[in-house]
Each structure stands twice: as C-alpha cells, then as structure tokens.
Amino acid sequence: MPEAVETGVPGGDVAARHLRTPETDTPVLVVDDLVVDHRNRSTGEVFRAVDHVSLRIEAGQSVAVVGESGSGKTTLAMAATGLGTRGEGDIRLLGHSLSSVGRKELRRLRPEVQVVFQDPHGSLDPRQSVRSGLRELRTLQPRRTDWIDDTGLLGRVRLAPELLDRYPHQLSGGQAQRVCIARALLMRPRLIVADEPTSGLDVSVQADVLALLKEIRATTGAALLMISHDLAVVRSVCDVVHVMYRGRVVESGPCETVFATPENEYTRELLAAMPGARWRSRR
Ligand SMILES: Nc1ncnc2c1ncn2[C@@H]1O[C@H](COP(=O)(O)OP(=O)(O)OP(=O)(O)O)[C@@H](O)[C@H]1O
C-alpha cells in the first residue's frame, strides 16, 4: 500500500498541489528475477553484473540499494528503469512490462522516471544556460512541464532566479546538483532515481541536497530509488534497503531492522566499515 505522505504545502500553493501525483495501489517498479551481463569489449569475456535480483518499489516509497563499488547497483538501477542494458527478467514500470510495451507507450513512460547522477556538472550540457536547458525540456514535454515557471521551479530547490542565466561552469557543485534536481522535478516523475547524488559534493552541502530530496519526495509523492555506498545517507533518507554483493541482493528489509540487526555477514562488514558504523556505535 502506498504510504500516507503529508504534502507540507502551504494552502495557497497551487503549483505544488498540481505537482502531487495521485495515490495509487500500482507499484511504481517491480523487478522480477533480473539478470544483466556485461561483455568486456576487448576480451569478449562476459561478466554477470546483476544476478537474479528482484525488488519492488511502492508508490511514494523510498528504497535504497547499497553495496561496495562494482557490486552492480548502477547496472541494476539503469536496467530496472529501462535506461540501461535491459537484461533478462521481468520489469514492470507503473504496471507496464518493459519487455512488451510498445515504443509509443515507452515514450510516454520515460518521463515518469528521472535520474539524478553523481556528477552534476557531467549531467548538464556545458553549452546551455540553466534557462535554455529548462526551455528545451519544456519544448519536449509542454504539457508535463506547464505547472510551474522557471523562477518558481528554482525556488523549489532553493536557488535564486539569478542563476537562470548561468552556465554549468558558473555553478558550484551543490548548485549544479540542485539544477539537476529541478530538471527532474519539472517532469513530475513518479520515480526519482538518485545514483550517489551527494558523493561528488562538498561535505558541507551534502546534507542540504539530501534534505531537498526528502522534501521533494514528501511534497510530490514521487518514489525514490537511492543508489549509495554510504549507509549514513541511506539511513537518513530511505525506508527500505537492499544490500548488494557481487550482483546479488544478499539482504533486504526496513532500514531500521537491517541496520540494527543485520543477518548477512556482508551487511555486518559494510556496517562495521562504513560511516554508518559510527552512527550505530553512537546509539
Ligand atoms: N558497460 C559496461 N561494460 C562492461 N562492464 C561493465 C559495464 N558497466 C558496468 N560494468 C561492470 O559491472 C560491474 C558492476 O558495475 P556497476 O557500475 O553496476 O556497480 P556499482 O555497484 O554501481 O559500482 P560503482 O559504485 O563503482 O558505480 C562492475 O564490475 C563494472 O566494471
């Protein structure tokens, strides 16, 4: 069941009310027995990056995939959202199976998933000002994006309107990531995938960006799939965690349970080795 989420939106905020997605019982994402192989271009060797993984994200839920570098988190997220190598297994996005959906339907579904990447500057076109980048999105999706103007949108991610005329190289890492989040928000997605959204940022702005993602989830009702190696980040943002090790999900459950009483040896090692360990020992 989708959880009840307070919008926290002031009464007069028409744009925010329009933004909020309708509650629905259809899970945003269901991944069933996904297998993704990568082939090494020079040796031809096949490497199994995702090995029979299943997971489910309900409407409005906040789900994390954690694991060390190379464990297959990004491959899983990209395949599961139809944005990367598809692999084998069934993936249902908003109730539509990606293996049977037609091109037109896929085009309609695409904007429902927005990805925020680790490197905000790498995600933005260096030749486009913030304003012209937003204009391009509005041209591509006029009806989806007409709920708010540029100034209002930047306000939602706590950026001053003056930044509209800046180019990516004129933005700090934190500002650029907020622009990326604004671009995602503009599309009114049902699922936001955040792939290590704070690991390229100064420590001083990491907490602000996480707080912003949490707020956007609460005010829009969008589900969140957070990819991270940082357990402290996951704990502060997510309800449910899946722990990945060498392409497999080795443990899943509510964050509080998995972090307090990890059952898998690898999860215990992660907790001991990562910043989350400090959090646990402080409790
Ligand atoms: N396009 C590709 N071609 C070949 N191998 C790939 C490709 N993409 C990823 N891999 C390999 O698949 C494995 C999983 O990579 P993936 O990026 O999904 O892991 P990850 O857990 O997200 O790691 P990181 O946090 O470092 O991004 C790694 O060994 C990686 O080298």
From TrEMBL:
InterPro entries: AAA+_ATPase, ABC_transp_ATP-bind, ABC_transporter-like_ATP-bd, ABC_transporter-like_CS, P-loop_NTPase. The keyword Cell membrane does not apply. The keyword Aminoacyl-tRNA synthetase does not apply. This is ABC transporter ATP-binding protein. CDD domains: ABC_NikE_OppD_transporters (cd03257). It comes from the Bacteria. Keywords: ATP-binding, Nucleotide-binding, Transport. It holds the Pfam family ABC_tran. It comes from Dactylosporangium sucinum. GO terms for biological process: transmembrane transport. Belongs to the ABC transporter superfamily. Residues 29-271 form the ABC transporter domain. One of its GO terms (molecular function) is ATP binding.
